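Hi V.,

Quick status before I head out on leave. The structure for the redesign project is tokenized and pasted below; the design run finished overnight.
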């Protein structure tokens, strides 16, 4: 190997320093700015959801709370990902109002990320008058939305198993009356189709809910919306031992940093 005599010692020093620098310092290690919706319709599961992000070790996060008024006034311009936690999707959607829901769509369309868990997944569909219309999805058996709580098994797609770094194609996860997502009979050209990453393998059919409905509906979906990304969980990783890490992982995906 020969060296160009024009290379100065200081350049050699800088090259050696670069080669010895830890890989982590070369990566984009800027904190992902995450806004957790705080308002009507938000349930108690928001607290463990926030804790799951705070405990993440693979990437730094900056977490803030955001109200409907903050969204309506343009505060989403200051964050990378918006999270709507569990609770009432209708309560959250109505709290946002038409202007707030449009602000969320504009935010995602311009490159922002959205994570909806349970109530936040109901909110992301285009199946209610208070919906965000981020994914072209209907909610199966709306009449029996309160079908009960408990652990269920879900079947993962190959893409989900890779994204979650999960060694098996099934996982057990806590369910608390989240939406049973399915593709609508008529495609809405204005709302993106979703990719189903997990389907329910077992079901909960309490409180008069019919059996044989929940299985094979989608438990986790994702989609691109304009320049942004949308991820929805029907069940609750943040309430499931051993699966808390799926929350920060999907926040990173929504931020384009998976």
């Amino acid at each position: 190997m020969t060296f160009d005599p024009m290379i100065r010692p200081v350049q050699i020093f800088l090259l050696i320093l670069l080669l010895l620098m830890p890989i982590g310092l070369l990566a984009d290690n800027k904190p992902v700015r995450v806004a957790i919706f705080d308002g009507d319709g938000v349930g108690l599961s928001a607290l463990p959801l926030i804790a799951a992000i705070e405990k993440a070790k693979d990437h730094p996060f900056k977490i803030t709370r955001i109200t409907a008024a903050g969204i309506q006034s343009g505060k989403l311009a200051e964050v990378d990902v918006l999270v709507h936690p569990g609770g009432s999707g209708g309560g959250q959607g109505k709290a946002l109002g038409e202007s707030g829901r449009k602000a969320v769509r504009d935010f995602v369309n311009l490159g922002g990320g959205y994570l909806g868990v349970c109530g936040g997944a109901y909110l992301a569909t285009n199946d209610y008058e208070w919906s965000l219309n981020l994914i072209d999805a209907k909610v199966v058996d709306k009449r029996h939305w309160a079908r009960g709580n408990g652990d269920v098994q879900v079947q993962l797609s190959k893409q989900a198993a890779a994204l979650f770094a999960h060694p098996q194609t099934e996982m057990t996860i806590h369910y608390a009356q989240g939406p049973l997502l399915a593709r609508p009979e008529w495609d809405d050209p204005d709302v993106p189709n979703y990719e189903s990453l997990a389907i329910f393998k077992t079901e909960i059919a309490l409180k008069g809910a019919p059996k044989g409905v929940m299985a094979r509906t989608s438990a986790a979906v994702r989609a691109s919306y304009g320049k942004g990304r949308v991820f929805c969980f029907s069940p609750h990783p943040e309430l499931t031992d051993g699966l808390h890490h799926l929350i920060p992982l999907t926040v990173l995906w929504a931020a384009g940093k998976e």
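Above is the designed sequence. The first helix runs from residue 9 to 20.

G. will cover questions while I'm gone.

Best,
W.
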